[in-house]
Amino acid sequence: MKTTLRLCLAAITAIALHGATHAQSYPSKPIRMIVPYAAGGAADIAARVIAKEMAQSLGAPVVVDNRGGANGNIGTDAVAKAAPDGYTVLFTASGPIVVNHAMYAKLPYDPLKDLLPVSQSTSYQYALTVAAASPIQSLEQLIQRAKTHPGTLSYGSSGIGGGAHLAGAMLARMSGTEMTHVPYKGNAPALADLLGGQLAFTFDTVVTAVPQIAGGKLRAFAVTGPKRSPLLPDVPTMEELGYPGFVVTQFQGLFVPAKTDTAIVERLHQAALAAVKSPDAVKRLQTEGGYEVVGSSPQAFTKLVQDEYVAYGRLIREAGVKAD
User: Fold this and answer.
1) How much is the pLDDT for 22?
2) Are 208 and 187 a contacting pair, CB within 8 Å?
3) Residue 16 — pLDDT band, cuts 50, 70, 90?
4) What is the domain-level CATH number for residue 157?
5) Please, which residues have CB within 8 angstroms of residue 86's CB and are 6 or more apart in sequence?
6) What DSSP assignment string belongs to 24-50?
7) Residues 113, 130 within the same domain
8) The CATH number of the domain where 56 resides is what?
9) How deeply is 229 buried, as exposed, middle or buried, from its count of CB atoms within 10 A (0-12, 13-18, 19+)?
10) Which terminus of the chain has fewer CB atoms gathered within 10 Å of its CB, N or C?
11) pLDDT tens digits, residue range 179-210?
């Protein structure tokens, strides 16, 4: 019995020492950063900026690996099932973490149990826009028209369950109106139909909307963040216009598989934090993506994920949003 106990204690000690040694030597090889979307998209652009800066802090290559498909579920699942050794990390927007669980009958991963939040890198919001030629001159007029003609006002988005779709669903719910959502495969066709008069309005990312607003093609009534966008300082928030609690933003950040050593999580957190403090990265993230640069602790990011998991889940169920 004593021999068995000594062997067990020795094994536990060896495992602990191995883990500590691994954490101290980390990283000793390239890190794969999986982005669960196609190359060239918003998350991919931010990921490549962050990966470049993190590689300098960590002293090891950080290689971006695009694994698009199923609204981000495929790439996210790959990280959830990866070895928790710090060499496979996830850089994603909100959808696969706080939205998809409510849209799909079943996910191959549990975003709250299978993944650990490391750091939120950025946040972005949306602008409620109409075509410059639209007779609708204010948010109040838009809501009045929706009440007078239920179901006839349509709004477009780049896809089911995206932030633009959820913002429209929240507007309909909070204003007590019925509006028709028209999903598109990307922002460009939605914009074309908005300008052509086939759509009444859209919620588009601020950075996408700004050039159209500056060019006189669109007018913005409101933004969906908790505060005004630096890119549209004269446009009020939805809360300022009388819709308390109307906040729709998207986070982007870093996750690792559950059970990853806390020392490795902290190492990645510090590298991610240094990345968003780099002047070059900040400039690129703000100008190319229109992002608000954040840089949060694992604890703060975990709370944000938990809060939005509940809030978006409730909104999606009340609005009856389902994945294709």
Assistant:
1) 54
2) yes
3) very low
4) 3.40.190.10
5) 26, 27, 31, 256, 260, 261, 264, 265, 267, 268
6) HH--SSPEEEEESS-TTSHHHHHHHHH
7) no
8) 3.40.190.150
9) buried
10) N
11) 999 998 878 899 999 999 999 999 998 988 99
- The Cα 31–Cα 259 span in angstroms is 17
Please write the tens of the pLDDT for every residue from 36-64. Answer: 998 888 889 899 999 999 999 999 999 99
Q: Distance between CA atoms of 268 and 275, rounded to whole angstroms? A: 10
How many other CB atoms are there within 10 angstroms of residue 52's CB atom? 17
Q: Cis before residue 27, ω within 30 degrees of 0?
A: yes
C-alpha to C-alpha distances, 160 to 100, 168, 177, 199, nearest whole angstrom:
10, 11, 19, 16
Number of domains in the chain: 2
Same domain, 51 and 108: yes
Is residue 235 situated within a structural domain?
no
Domain extent, residue 267, equals 2-124+250-319
pTM value > 0.70: yes
Q: Mean pLDDT of all residues in the chain? A: 91
30 and 112 both lie in a single domain: yes
Residue 274 pLDDT more than 90?
A: yes
Q: Which of 91, 116, 130, 127 is nearest to 285 (CA)?
A: 91
